[in-house]
Design brief:
44% of the residues lie in helices and 14% in strands. The chain has 488 residues and is of the alpha/beta class. Bound molecules: uracil.
Length: 488
């Protein structure tokens, strides 16, 4: 019975509509070939079901699907591939008979849907990175307007990111399919637009150009990689790309100057192997990456994104090599870190340092930071007792870690413990189940998970401590080997 059911979806990314219909169809045992998925406003499928085909059956009892499937479906449904609804439905049917079907990465269906989801996440990452607002005056108020052309239907999915990041601005993002508007309190949606609807250059561009020139690191220029990250299609929207030819032209000379400067510093017995925040050379007064990092840290020192700043002594920002191959993320500063203003310098830091050494990792060549940058505690007499940050605090602080990772771009990011994993993956990740193997981070980087060093401190008996410590060091060794393999 080809084309016996026609499902009308409200939008190309209508996950709820797809889920409700898919559940009911799956319960009724309808095969994927007997369904046509129509999206409102899109060309109807001429070869699918006739217009009078039956709607999906009314929903029966629903069955549980793994949480990972929901995440996969929410991402894949935003892909522009017309087959996505049917593919997801086929996988849903598989899950109905085998709850572990998603674990079979060799299954072409799982593989294809994973690829769709990955492409959507990559598109989202580009949107985060390449949306450029122009300042306009409208009805006596300032508004920021950006034009962006995503490859997939990601605009609604990513609206929350821009709301969080630019909560205090009034802004609009115009795209060919839909426009979204934020007035400081409410998000609204309008029809698609054209590039002509978006304003051209304005003073904001000058700020961007200055910022971009200051973070442009000549030693990192890889033109092919740059074009891959920043497809030409986006260049027209990005004021800083006007600077690229001249920055590229000067890059070789500046890189040579950087090498010369760093060599002369090494000759003068600088203790560390890699550029660090303290000593990144700044040829020609550029300062580039180190300057951008220092500005970011400066901003973080005044952070009031959640209430934790009120009781903590100071923001404890990350530190280490800005060209680190491994970025470690802890939970939050402890009592001693809060006083010193540096991560992992207390008892957990001692455990961490010793384990790193045993695993053959030079801490000074890594970057170490925390998911939450302020110490959360309750006062008991003279003692300040650590309290784990909650989901809201982790989420408020994610802004900083995203910026740190964006600047450093480490090949590997390692979550030390559950809070860090939650911050990096945006969801709860069981440590036992996920440790010791690579995972894709939502933004496309490679993430690893292991225990937090203070977990070892809390273990009551010596034997358990020894055993867990060995596992921790083994995880770190695997991470070192992976970092070396990626660099080879
Ligand atoms: N625990 C952490 O997670 N981070 C620190 O910096 C110190 C202790």
């Amino acid at each position: 019975m080809i084309g016996a059911h026609r499902v009308a979806l409200a939008a190309p990314d209508d996950f709820d509509g797809w889920r409700d219909a898919a559940r009911a169809l799956a319960e009724a045992g309808v095969p994927p070939t007997a369904i046509v998925w129509d999206v409102a406003g899109a060309e109807p499928d001429l070869f699918g079901a006739p217009a009078e085909a039956a709607p999906p059956p009314a929903g029966g009892a629903s069955f549980a699907v793994p949480r990972d499937f929901i995440a996969l479906a929410k991402a894949a449904i935003c892909h522009s591939d017309a087959e996505r609804f049917a593919l997801l439905y086929a996988l849903l049917l598989k899950l109905r008979s085998n709850r572990r079907a998603l674990e079979d990465r060799a299954d072409p269906l799982v593989d294809r849907l994973e690829r769709l989801a990955k492409e959507v996440r990559r598109d989202a990452h580009k949107m985060h990175a390449f949306v450029r607002f122009r300042e306009v005056e409208a009805d006596g108020e300032t508004r920021f307007v950006a034009w962006f052309e995503p490859d997939h239907h990601i605009v609604r999915r990513e609206a929350g990111f821009f709301v969080r990041r630019f909560a205090n601005m009034r802004w609009s993002i115009l795209t060919p399919e839909v426009s979204i508007h934020w007035d400081g309190a409410t998000l609204s949606e309008g029809p698609g637009a054209t590039r002509r609807d978006a304003p051209d250059g304005d003073p904001v561009e000058e700020t961007w150009k200055t910022y971009y020139a200051s973070i442009f690191n000549p030693a990192r220029v890889k033109v092919k990689a740059m074009l891959k990250e920043m497809p030409k299609k986006y260049w027209a929207n990005m004021p800083e790309t006007a600077l690229v030819p001249s920055l590229l032209a000067g890059a070789q000379a500046r890189e040579a100057a950087m090498i010369a400067t760093s060599r002369s510093q090494e000759e003068s017995a600088m203790p560390r192997r890699t550029p660090t925040p303290d000593r990144v050379p700044s040829p020609g007064g550029g300062g580039n990456l180190a300057a951008a990092w220092a500005a970011l840290k400066q901003d973080a020192l005044g952070c009031t994104r959640c209430h934790l700043y009120k009781c903590a002594t100071q923001t404890v920002f990350g530190e280490g090599a800005l060209d680190a191959r491994i970025l470690f993320v802890g939970e939050q500063p402890g009592d001693q870190e809060d006083l010193a203003g540096r991560p992992f310098v207390g008892p957990a830091g001692e455990v961490f340092n010793a384990a790193l050494e045993e695993a053959g990792i030079d801490r000074s060549a890594t970057y170490v930071t925390n998911a939450v940058k302020h110490f959360k505690f309750v006062q008991r007499g003279k003692r300040r007792i650590h309290q784990s940050p909650d989901a809201g605090e982790i989420s408020a602080c994610r802004w900083w870690i995203e910026q740190e990772r964006e600047l450093i771009r480490p090949p590997l990011t390692v979550a030390l413990g559950a809070t860090a994993a939650r911050s990096l993956f945006g969801k709860i990740m069981a440590i036992g189940k996920n440790r010791g193997v690579p995972h894709s981070l939502p933004d496309g980087g490679e993430g690893w998970i292991t225990v937090h060093p203070s977990f070892l401190l809390r273990l009551p008996d010596e034997a358990a401590r020894r055993d867990e410590r060995r596992k921790f060091v083994d995880d770190l060794k695997r991470i070192r080997e992976r970092a070396e393999a990626l660099a080879a």
